[in-house]
């Protein structure tokens, strides 16, 4: 039994069983990768970020809109303006959609028919495109399912229809990436098979390499996907691709080292198991160092907060699994197959010496300064070109998607920023349905609209993106001026009537006079009502006016009101007296007993009425003069800045139109509202962040010192998401580069035991990578016209470049460390020896990334070009720079002491010569 176990262990069967169990468990527990990409592929923003806070607000919005997002149904007539028949068809389509709203999860539909005040934002200026805004529940189903259903529902004969929103476009981007992920995986593995077949002219060796890649990849992918699915670990839409990219490149390189050494040993007659053990012993340290470097470098990315960068930390686990598989799984097959591994090639191919690195190293040793100057002359201009621009828009790489086309239609007919608006939420502990708060919101709306880069702003007071004239003091002053003109005329009539009444007080006409005065009293009551409204409006306008004379004008208005009150009081007294007089006269004829008393009362009443009417006449004359002055003042006020202020009376706030606006723009408690800001340009890395920062500053400063000074401001929308990603990415990317490259350099220093030489090599790699990046940007701009990379390109290119640096520089570092001679003695033979495998490593690196081209994605094409160009430049420049800096680091320090001794000897000679001259001069003087 022990002998059998020993034999199984000798043949590494236990290792094979272990990997079979691991890969079986990985396959069984592997979740649906497409689903994970759809739901977890986009960057996960922090809970403290503005977009996440805005989402939480929308989830508790109330008014039956909890947990909804806005979708634009776009109806476009490509031949011109929408005809009446087409508009009727759109209305019919919307009516049908309304009937099935519950089925589609549509909580609210906004059209220019049911919300006329929003018409400017829903119908393009050229009348060719109409938008119907839908509030769709997140609980209805996936974004992809909802989009497909709504697209079929809104289809209208004769019109191009689209269903679009930033959420739909992001989902379309994830769908596009998941659609080519499988193709990239298959093509990458196929290219790996072909590459290994070409290198070893074998059929079996590529299959073993394929199995190693497949087992390592499935194990790592299952672990990464389960972490995202069950523990909400960071996951990127490119996770399956970059895991495959790193694992396949590293497995190809380690398998190439393994198979090459194994063939040399088996061809020399060594047994397959013994040869395998010796290869594991010889290469184990090298593979361990490379695995350790890559695992620590990429595993450190898990320390970052930004989810996309943290997702790349999974590569650390992938490289660890790959390294273990390289020294445990591959030996299982090599030990069993032996020389059969290289079937059908029976004889070892003759390998010619590779002279390129030899000649480059020899030139660097011969003329180090010239070699350095040539390299700097070729690389520095490319590196310093500074054409680095990143794009944070997911839609640039999506071909022929209806949501993207709909967004382009909106940009063409409404403005470039229409498809990606910014939403500003304002939350306060006060109700927002009164004049004071609404006035400040309107001022903020106008202030934001005036900012550079802003095309339009909609709010509760301006739902159509433009001020509503009847809500402003200027329009109200116009009505008041008309009323004042009528009041002045009425005052003239009252004045004449009073003049007539004061001279025509007769018994026969007392009843008629009572009626006339009753009429006058009604007129003065009307004047009182108009004047009260006038006083309220003027006080609201004057409180916001900075014009001189505000206080004196307010006093004149108050004086006018007091005079009007006095006139009204006098007229009411006169009416009461005349009524009493008329009653008294009527009782004279029937009651002779009280005649004398009534006549006395009559005389006193006549005198009282006469005095009262005279007083009223004077006050009416004074009031008419005051009204003329007020009319002139209001005419000037109407053209001032104060007249441009919003003033909503309680009647206007209670009106149906404004209540509809409150419903659309505020939550159920009317304590949270939002403003929609449409930018002139689509989101881009150059201007969006600056514009958003400016909007935040303007909003805070505008509300400072007002009744809304304590309000909480929250920004959301695709530009805000892009800006948040850009801010986090630009903050973390330099730290990522410093951390990973710093760890790699540190390990190279430890392995080579030379800080100076490892530093020279690593700087050469960095310069090569920068040159490859800039050249790729130039080539992509020439091929596609796109001068910007997707923001994930640097991260994705980071993987093969780091593998390239670690593999080649580790080999160079170990060769230098194991050298027993001096640095000058090692440079030419050591670098030449490492260069013998350069063409194979270069071929493997290039072949390993060619599979990315199957995606027909600009992002992955850029990664491919960056990797290939960097690998070529690095393999041409490294021997030159390593030999040149290596020689100079020895020669220059050695020259300094020699120069110092030469100067010292020269000084001694000069002093001796001076002393001799002095002595000879003294001797001459003595003689």
Notes on the protein architecture:
This protein is of the alpha+beta class and 927 residues long. The protein has 32 helices and ten strands. Residues 544-550, 584-596 and 914-927 have low confidence and may be disordered. The protein has four domains: 4-30 and 205-348, Multidrug efflux transporter AcrB transmembrane domain (Multidrug efflux transporter AcrB transmembrane fold, Up-down Bundle); 358-394 and 724-892, Multidrug efflux transporter AcrB transmembrane fold; 421-470 and 649-716; 483-644, Up-down Bundle (Four Helix Bundle (Hemerythrin (Met), subunit A)), CATH 1.20.120. It has a four-stranded antiparallel β-sheet with strand order 2-3-1-4, sandwiched between helices. Strands 7-8-6-9 form a four-stranded antiparallel β-sheet, with helices on both faces. The chain has a two-stranded parallel ribbon with strand order 5-10.
């Amino acid at each position: 039994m022990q002998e059998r176990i020993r034999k199984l262990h000798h043949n590494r069967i236990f290792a094979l069983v272990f990997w079979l169990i691991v890969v079986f468990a990985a396959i069984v527990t592997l979740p649906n990768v497409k689903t994970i990409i759809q739901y977890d592929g986009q960057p996960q923003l922090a809970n403290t970020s503005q977009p996440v806070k805005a989402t939480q607000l929308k989830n508790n919005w109330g008014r039956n809109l909890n947990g909804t997002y806005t979708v634009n149904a776009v109806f476009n007539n490509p031949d011109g303006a929408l005809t009446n028949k087409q508009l009727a068809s759109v209305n019919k389509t919307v009516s049908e959609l309304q009937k099935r709203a519950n089925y589609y999860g549509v909580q609210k539909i906004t059209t220019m028919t049911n919300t006329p005040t929003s018409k400017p934002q829903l119908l393009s200026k050229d009348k060719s495109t109409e938008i119907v805004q839908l509030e769709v529940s997140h609980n209805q189903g996936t974004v992809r399912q909802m989009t497909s259903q709504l697209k079929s529902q809104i289809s209208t004969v004769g019109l191009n229809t689209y269903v679009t929103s930033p959420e739909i476009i992001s989902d379309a981007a994830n769908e596009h990436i998941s659609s080519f992920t499988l193709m990239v995986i298959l093509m990458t593995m196929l290219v790996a098979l072909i590459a290994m077949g070409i290198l070893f002219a074998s059929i079996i060796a590529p299959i073993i390499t394929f199995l190693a890649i497949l087992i390592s990849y499935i194990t790592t992918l299952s672990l990464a996907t389960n972490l995202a699915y069950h523990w909400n670990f960071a996951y990127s839409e490119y996770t399956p691709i970059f895991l495959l990219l790193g694992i396949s490149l590293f497995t190809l390189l380690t398998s190439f080292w393994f198979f090459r050494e194994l063939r040399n040993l088996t061809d020399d007659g060594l047994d397959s198991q013994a040869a395998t053990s010796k290869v594991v012993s010889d290469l184990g340290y090298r593979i361990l160092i490379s695995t350790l470097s890559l695992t620590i470098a990429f595993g450190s990315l898990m320390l970052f907060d930004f989810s996309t960068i943290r997702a790349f930390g999974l590569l650390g686990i992938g490289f660890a699994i790959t390294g273990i598989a390289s020294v445990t799984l591959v030996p299982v097959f090599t030990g069993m197959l032996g020389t059969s591994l290289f079937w059908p090639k029976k004889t070892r191919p003759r390998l010619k010496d590779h002279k390129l690195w030899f000649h480059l190293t020899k030139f660097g040793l011969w003329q180090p300064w010239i070699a350095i100057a040539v390299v700097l002359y070729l690389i520095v201009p490319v590196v310093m070109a500074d054409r680095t621009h990143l794009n944070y828009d997911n839609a640039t790489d999506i071909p022929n998607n209806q949501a993207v086309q709909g967004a382009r239609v909106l940009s063409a007919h409404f403005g470039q920023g229409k498809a990606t608006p910014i939403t500003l939420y304002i939350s306060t502990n006060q109700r927002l349905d009164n004049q004071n708060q609404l006035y400040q919101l309107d001022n903020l709306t106008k202030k934001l609209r005036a900012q550079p880069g802003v095309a339009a702003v909609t709010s509760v007071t301006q739902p159509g993106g433009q001020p509503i004239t009847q809500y402003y003091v200027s329009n109200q002053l116009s009505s008041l001026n008309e009323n004042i003109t009528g009041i002045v005329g009425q005052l003239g009539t009252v004045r004449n009537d009073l003049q007539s009444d004061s001279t025509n007080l007769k018994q026969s006409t007392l009843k008629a006079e009572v009626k006339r005065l009753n009429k006058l009293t009604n007129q003065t009551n009307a004047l009182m009502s108009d004047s009260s409204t006038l006083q309220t409006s003027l006080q609201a306008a004057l409180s916001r006016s900075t014009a001189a004379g505000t206080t004196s004008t307010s006093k004149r208005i108050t004086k006018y009101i007091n005079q009007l009150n006095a006139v009204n009081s006098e007229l009411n007294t006169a009416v009461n007296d005349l009524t009493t007089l008329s009653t008294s006269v009527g009782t004279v004829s029937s009651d002779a007993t009280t005649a004398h008393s009534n006549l006395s009362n009559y005389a006193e009443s006549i005198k009282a009425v006469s005095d009262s009417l005279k007083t009223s006449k004077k006050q009416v004359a004074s009031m008419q003069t005051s009204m003329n002055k007020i009319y002139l003042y209001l005419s000037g006020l109407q053209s001032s800045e104060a007249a441009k202020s919003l003033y909503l009376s309680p009647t206007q706030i209670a009106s149906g139109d404004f209540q509809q606006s409150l419903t659309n723009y505020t939550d159920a408690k009317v304590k949270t509202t939002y403003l929609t800001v449409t930018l002139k340009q689509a989101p881009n890395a150059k201007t969006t962040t600056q514009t958003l920062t400016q909007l935040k500053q303007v909003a805070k400063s505008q509300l400072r010192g007002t009744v809304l000074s304590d309000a909480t401001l929250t920004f959301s929308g695709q530009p805000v998401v892009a800006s948040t990603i850009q801010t986090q990415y630009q903050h973390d990317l330099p730290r990522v580069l410093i951390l990973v490259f710093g760890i790699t350099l540190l390990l190279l220093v430890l392995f080579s035991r030379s800080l100076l030489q490892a530093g020279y090599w690593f700087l050469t790699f960095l310069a090569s990578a920068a040159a490859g990046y800039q050249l790729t940007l130039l080539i992509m701009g020439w091929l596609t016209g796109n001068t910007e990379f997707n923001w994930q390109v640097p991260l994705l290119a980071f993987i093969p470049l780091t593998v390239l640096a670690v593999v080649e520089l580790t080999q160079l570092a170990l060769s230098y460390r194991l050298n027993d001679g001096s640095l000058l003695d090692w440079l030419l033979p050591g670098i030449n020896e490492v260069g013998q495998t350069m063409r194979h490593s270069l071929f493997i690196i290039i072949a390993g990334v060619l599979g990315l081209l199957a995606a027909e994605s600009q992002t992955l094409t850029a990664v491919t070009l960056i990797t290939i160009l960097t690998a070529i430049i690095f393999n041409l420049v490294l021997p030159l720079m390593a030999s040149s800096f290596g020689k100079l680091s020895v020669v220059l320090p050695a020259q300094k002491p020699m120069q110092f001794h030469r100067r010292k000897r020269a000084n001694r000679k000069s002093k001796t010569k001076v002393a001799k001259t002095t002595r000879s001069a003294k001797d001459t003087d003595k003689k």
